[in-house]
Amino acid sequence: MKASFRILIVDDELMIAEMAREMLLELGYFVVGVAKNYAEALKYLEQADPIDMAILDINLNETKSGIDLGQLLRDRFKIPFVYLTSYTDPETIRAAVDTAPSAYLIKPFSKSDLHATVEIIKIKKQQITKSIMVRLADVNIRVESKDILYIKSDNNYIEIFTQTKKYVHRQSLEGFLDEIQDSNFVRIHRSYAINLQKVEAINGRYVVINDEKISLSRTYKAGLMDLLRK
To answer: What is the pTM of this model?
Structure first.
């Protein structure tokens, strides 16, 4: 679902930011928030729920520019970003390219331009990272799908189990499976999904992973057995 793809907008031109926000919402994406400068964007990055990508204006009329923020997203947060700007001079483009943005949109832009750009980044992110951003204490961290053993649903939250940690993340089990886009993860119960690569044993009532017995419901049993035979 598009709504599970979370986007931060950073632009000091409020009309442009609002237009981008409305376009993204109409296209079915989730807008985490709109920041008008580097400091506000940093608050979203450090305090908000996980962010999948950011749209950055280059000129924020502050000491720190969108290019500074792009460097931060690349080096610290590992979040893909797009520059949205009216600047097309070689010097600005060269500085922007050095931060390795995922795309460069020139103002004025259309909804179709924005849609195509976000969808390309979304697909690349799903194909390359196979990971999910989760909250731990006061920071967002990336958990690789290969490290996840299984996931347990608890109403609006899920518990993500790895060999060494358990992460509590605000998301539905359906949303997790949609976001992770990894065929190794399958649902075996209304409250559980597992990583097929981590299965140690199975019987008619449960699956064993890391010496833990995880409930297997009859609804999902046949499908799971078919997958394990492949």
So the answer is: 0.59
